[in-house]
Amino acid sequence: MSDDEKFDAIIIGAGPAGAACAYLLAKAGKSVILIERGSTAGEKNVTGGRLYTYALELVEPGLYQQAPLQRKVIREQIVMMSQHSAMTMDYVDYDFGAEVPQSFTVLRATFDEWFAAQAEEQGAMLAIGILVEDLIEERGRIIGVRAGDDEIYANVVIAADGVNSFIAQKAGLRGDITADSVGVCAKEVIELPPEVIEARFNLAADEGVARVMSGGTDGVPGGAFLYTNKDSISLGVVVNPVEAAQQGKKVQEMLQDLKMHPVVYPFIKEGTTVEYGAHLVSELGINAMPKKLYRDGLLLIGDAAGFVINTGTMVRGIDLAIVSGVAAARAVLANEGSTNVGTAYLKELEDLALLPTMRLYAKWHDIVGNPRMAATYPNMMNEMIKNMFFVDGKLPKRIDKAMLSIVRKHVSIGQLAADGWKGFRAI
Amino acid sequence: MTVKKLSPEELLGLNKFAVDEAEPHIVLDKAICAKCAEKPCLVVCPAVLYSLKDNEMNFDYAGCLECGTCRVVCKNKGIIKWNYPRGPFGVAFRCG
Ligand SMILES: Cc1cc2nc3c(=O)[nH]c(=O)nc-3n(C[C@H](O)[C@H](O)[C@H](O)COP(=O)(O)OP(=O)(O)OC[C@H]3O[C@@H](n4cnc5c(N)ncnc54)[C@H](O)[C@@H]3O)c2cc1C
Ligand code: SF4
Ligand code: SF4
Predict the structure, then answer these.
(1) What is the value of ipTM here, to two decimals?
(2) Phi (first) and psi of residue A206, to 5 degrees
(3) Does B67 lie at the interface with A, CB-CB under 8 angstroms?
(4) pLDDT at A167 over 90
(5) Which ligand has an atom closest to residue A322 CA?
(6) Mean pLDDT of A386-404
(7) Mean pLDDT confidence for A125-140
(8) Which of A130, A189, A265 sits opposite B95 (nearest CB)?
(9) For atom 45 of ligand 1, which residue has the closest CA?
(10) Which residues are CB-contacts of A222 (< 8 A; sequence separation ≥ 6)?
(11) pLDDT of residue A4
């Protein structure tokens, strides 16, 4: 790279946010460089996970059909786990898989590599194996980036460097991320033949399950997930690192215990673990977003901007990353050379329903982050269900009294009412 | 194979790493760590790369998954440098 090269846009990070933005800018004929520190796009990235298809459709209708996606999700399962039992809510909807399926499970190493290659095909320059170390500023405006001895210049720099965004920090748009605003995830990818996965989860060849679990984390606030891929299962735990540390519970061990749990083990047995990954995920939604998402010459998109929604039953980040990439590209295209790109970007985020959606879920962390969700309520629920089904020939307790005594054993009625009210208010 | 509990070493053995021998991307100041009472890094690192040997903090950056958890929990600033590895070093996930 020569010193005086100047692009229309520099995009830092070839995750879904960066690739989506690069795709649209390049397609419109702009000179774009997409810089990724990994030796391929995707090799540094870990997700749960699933991708909500509408976001890819926003980039290019029909694009999802070429994407290396895993299985279309037609089953949603919510599991309340206690030590030896579990209550599973299983929602199946085959319309989720009709025409444009609403979501697919995904493995990021292959997906991100494909997506970045699509941006390249549109004309973006993909520069891999390069870590951007700093921003170049001139009279208050960001005009380029520094990587090793190279300096690269552009009309606009777009930070798509993920949850641990050093670029947003260097730009002064956010402080160091704090431990209480993130969850740490440990994840295994466990290989199994497709037919075995389909038989165990009751699926047809292209169908998949998304399963979220509360109570699988040894009492540490957080949760667990299981997603079916074509020939593997993604299994992971996500916990609050501060609580885990205080309780002295190792993240890696929690995942090992989860594998052996009687409601998890039968699904993964005879499988082979082929990968172990870890990643941070932003947990507080809009409450942890930087106050400003841009400054002169720079926009933040995707996780770098804090765009993640976690409702406890659903995590959305990849789709929001893509949508924000689209918003940034549109803002840049409509405001070339002007200083209004930042405000135009915010307007696009409103129009594409991203910021309104973030606002809608503003208080959900009160429910998801409630420490009683990690053990107390799952245990209570399991005991109540057990009571409903348990028969030993003796005279059963009256159901109302039995239930009340189970509730009392786990929480005070005041606590239950307070949590219920808080939950209701959050929705 | 059947699924079983795996040790941190076994888990990391499954991954591909290109270790940057010339430049560690995470550096500790062991004197600060010695004075750190809580030592959350011992618990939260998913790769279990932090350990105590004769009360001295031991750390090996070679198996790092680049998650950033140690950085965010280290309040006493014993981690005097935390960067991503220079491109294209570090972990390479084949699934993610
Ligand atoms: C456990 C877990 C489960 C999740 N489940 C889901 C789910 O089911 N569905 C969903 O939609 N979302 C989910 N998410 C959230 C989702 O993964 C993220 O929101 C999404 O990946 C954000 O995309 P991004 O492009 O902003 O950032 P990233 O995907 O993090 O990409 C950032 C890129 O920038 C590169 N980079 C960073 N710094 C530099 C630098 N200085 N120079 C060059 N390159 C750099 C990185 O290597 C990386 O490729 C989950 C997250 C986790 C951790
Ligand atoms: S970044 Fe993650 S894997 Fe690497 S040392 Fe820190 S906690 Fe461990
Ligand atoms: S938390 Fe930080 S200061 Fe404390 S022992 Fe760990 S690395 Fe050292």
Answers:
(1) 0.96
(2) -105, 5
(3) yes
(4) yes
(5) 1
(6) 87
(7) 97
(8) A189
(9) A13
(10) A183, A237, A238, A239, A240, A243, A244, A374
(11) 57
